[in-house]
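Hey,
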Amino acid sequence: MIVARRNVWAGGALLVALMAVTLVPFASLFTTALHQSGTYPNGLDWPSHPHWHNFVEAFHTANMGAILKSSVLIVIAVVPISVLIATMAGFGLGHLRVRGGQVVFVLFLLGLTLPFEGVIVPIYYEIRGMGLLNSRWAIILPLIGLYMPFAVYWMRAHFLNMPAELSEAARVDGASTWQLFWRIHVPLARPAVSSLGILLSVWTWNQFILSIVLVDEPTKRTMAGALGAFQGQWGADIPLLSAGSLLILTPTLIVFLVFQRHFVAALLQGSLKG
């Protein structure tokens, strides 16, 4: 009994410590955003006169209305295509066990080891050769390709745990491979598909490097690219930068809080069948 109580207390203390490590940076960002524009606040200092209008000023300074529209268009273009391709590839690699699938899967695993920073230069020259620089396609096309390793791995893990008897019964009833995919396995994969879509949406929304390197016009970037508006020649406006960061983070936080059940369902589905 004593050992169990100690374990409970230790787990609670660890949870509190993790929460503190997670929340303190956000608290610092929030207090910094309330200081006077152009100043350099320290840590968690609460201003004597909070400047709440910094959020409005940051929104207008970065022209976030136009960038918001651009981000939505990019997300709408990237996420459905990525999820569709990854779902079909995951079904083929995880459930159909196509010939040569192991080799293809290893190649996708190698793709997981490539950081965005390591491939940004070749991507730049490739996009420039295609004549797509300074357009939203310069962000959309690379993101679809860069997301594939993780997306295929995610969906393959789901289809790998699907019982073969389910497909065999459908085959006996005369279902084709296409019908087997769309009518049986896709509906069952809804938790995995929805959670993958949410992850890709958040990552696309917060994409910064591709937006800055491949697109010069701010109104064609993602929301994270709006942070460049607070960077001047000799420095950055720290309070406005903090306010802008919080404005950019808010939609992704809301999305996660609303759809967190899908993440839990997908993770539990894999743990119960694994």
